[in-house]
Design brief:
By secondary structure, the protein is an alpha/beta fold. The chain has 10 helices and 7 strands. Bound molecules: S-adenosylmethionine. S-adenosylmethionine binds next to helix 1, helix 2 and helix 3.
């Protein structure tokens, strides 16, 4: 199943998205701490059902918002959340290849970039959309996420994506801060339900699914280890970087 299909079918997203809500709220605090001037043009990539917008829009007076997502069903739910606010426009957009979406003072995104095939190339494209002095602020999953689920696989191969290390993220040229959020699940079923509900169950390319017996073994090990799964969240913030210094 593609990422778009996975998120279009994630009807239960909000009920299983505590981490997403927390991460979006913290990113909103950090964006406000940047003290952006009024009248901002904001591009949001991968808005989902609108957690980041809910935490940020009212704190950026007079901002003009372009809220985007690659999955039509998610964008529709963001539109429902924000109703008829005239300062928000909506568009279906692949954040990895945004084309000429416009010129922006701020590009924000929370927990969407972990599905990009080439994150550094995507961020270079975002830089190309920044107005002079513009800023990028996004969160993504980093290496170590779901380590407990991976460990429960033992010698078996886990379908969990290979999230980037802090070194690889820092090489993009933004400031990177890492935070680990441990999430206690009732059991492995609850973990898998939650990952599926937030659309994150798509295995990494080339992964061969486990047999039912193998999956049962992995789930039993995960339960025996306490059924905790950590989200390692990277917050990446900065301006146009290299482009700024060469112009
Ligand atoms: C885990 S959800 C996060 C949504 C929201 N930002 C939040 O914090 O709740 C990831 C979102 O990224 C979107 N997404 C995934 N790949 C994308 C891409 N290439 N371009 C734009 N959005 C994408 C998905 O459709 C989904 O809505």
């Amino acid at each position: 199943m593609s990422i778009v299909q996975a998120f279009d079918r994630a009807a239960d997203y909000d009920a299983h998205a505590d981490v997403q809500r927390i991460v979006a709220a913290r990113l909103a605090d950090q964006v406000v701490a940047l003290a952006p001037p009024p009248g901002l043009r904001v591009l949001e990539i991968g808005c989902g059902t609108g957690f980041l917008g809910a935490a940020l829009i009212d704190r950026l007076p007079s901002a003009r918002w372009l809220m985007t997502d690659v999955a039509p069903a998610m964008l529709a739910r963001a539109r429902d959340r924000f109703g008829g606010r005239s300062a928000i426009d909506y568009a279906i957009l692949d954040g990895e290849a945004p084309g000429h979406a416009g010129s922006f003072d701020l590009i924000v995104s929370s927990l969407a970039a972990q599905w990009f095939a080439d994150l550094p190339a995507a961020i270079d494209r975002w830089r190309g959309l920044l107005a002079p002095g513009g800023q990028i602020a996004f969160t993504t999953l980093a290496a170590g996420s779901f380590a407990e689920w991976r460990a429960a696989h033992g010698d078996l191969s886990s379908g969990t994506a290979d999230y980037p290390t802090v070194e690889r993220l820092a090489a993009i040229g933004l400031d990177v801060a890492i935070e680990t959020l441990p999430v206690q699940h009732a059991d492995a079923h609850d973990f898998l339900r939650s990952v599926k509900a937030i659309g994150a169950a798509t295995p990494r390319p080339g992964h061969r699914p486990l047999t039912p017996a193998q999956l049962r073994t992995v789930m039993a090990r995960f339960d025996a280890a306490g059924a905790t799964a950590r989200y390692v969240v990277a917050t990446c913030i900065g301006g146009a970087g290299r482009q700024e210094t060469t112009t």
